[in-house]
Prominin 1 (Hypotaenidia okinawae), 144 residues
Amino acid sequence: VSVEVLQEGTERLHANLTEVKMHLSNTLNDSACFAAQAASTCNIIRNSLNQLNINANFSGLPGVSSQLVKVNDVLKTDLSSLVQKGYAAFNDTPDLVVNQTKNILSDIKNVLESIGSNITTFTKNLPVQKILADLTVYLTQSEA
């Protein structure tokens, strides 16, 4: 509901209320209202007619059009579809991790095999037996 609609409704309500107050005032000015039995009641009603007013002022209300547009945009959004996509992405995470790390695992295995091969080659090229034999001879001679 826009401010303009509220203002138009207030204007119509004010016009109708003014008309009703005029009819009441005419009725209260009828000779029957001045009879002793009705005079007191008519005076109370007559004195309270000024209280029938509309005090609404909608001109100070800020516009809400931009907020309504945003609410309508949210209402147009297929939230259940977004939630389903979120669930699907969450549920697909394990497969995604496996698929994305598959190549990395083979690369890591290749690097480790290369390191193992280098260690094997190094130990073959290093004359460990000869070094131990020479060390044993040296220690034996040193003790003598």
